[in-house]
Amino acid sequence: MKFSYLKAIVSVAEKGSLRAAARHLGMAQPALSRSIQQAEIDLGVTLFERHATGVTPTVAGKHYLQRASAILLDLERARDEVLQLAGSTLGRVTIGLSTVPHIAWLPSVLEPFRERYPSVKLTIHEGLFSRMQQPLEQGELDFYIGPVTDRVLPGGLMKERLCTNNLLVFCRRGHPLRNAKSLAELVDAQWVDTPVSEIAGADLAPLFQKYGLPAPRYGVRAQSTLTVLIAASSTDLLTMLPQQFLKFPGTRMMLEHINVRETLASPVIFTARRAQSVLTPAAQHLHDLLAQAAKVEPK
What we know:
Layout: H1 3-15, H2 18-25, H3 29-43, E1 48-51, E2 54-57, H4 59-85, E3 92-97, H5 99-104, H6 106-116, E4 121-126, H7 129-137, E5 143-147, E6 157-172, E7 190-193, H8 205-210, E8 217-221, H9 225-234, E9 239-242, H10 249-254, E10 255-258, E11 265-274, H11 281-296
Parallel strand pairs: 3-4, 3-5, 7-8
Antiparallel strand pairs: 1-2, 5-11, 6-9, 6-10, 6-11
């Protein structure tokens, strides 16, 4: 399969029409159409369904597109790698981070990274592993840092333990329970379910069970950290957040820490990436900066 065919297939799929793809690639539409047709002949399958408003990938086309996209991304990384090894500061790095590395480690590593690679285009996606798994598998992300609840990752991905973590209890400022010293004093409160991992409610219930307490009652089930902060700061609902939130300016403005005596374990933080991929020097440098920031963070 010619490299030009791969670019043609991916571009047509992304743009949704031959005309838009030809414009994007800077080539004549008939030439692009011939490339797609020749690729289909070489493969022996139809990659796109043609209709009046454009084209859509067939089932075979969708599968082939995933491979083709990954190949093009790997070739782009290979180019970035050799250029960066030769001293270039150009390239592209795309990563996924959960909330903890965002608020705790990213602020201290962005400037050092930009000083080393000032021209690299850095893209950062926020979310948990369930949202990052497919982009990782397809080569769209260089790496992910955050909780990974899967004990065994799908083939092609690998994870590495980065650090353990703990949760802290928070309430709105002036909350009547703000001086509580144990979870037992909070059993009658209602809680905001926190998006620490992919399983709703699974983070808090075992913590209460560990200390012989009934499962918490939820008033709000949040799908984002922003929702947690708004709900907990504007109501009497309590919440648990990773310990890094204690130093986050937004948290200090909106919430108070309830210093209970129990240790409340949070999901372990991992790094995850494709097992067979090699990070470019720029991506590796950013990964190492984040990992080092996690290791030196005061516990």
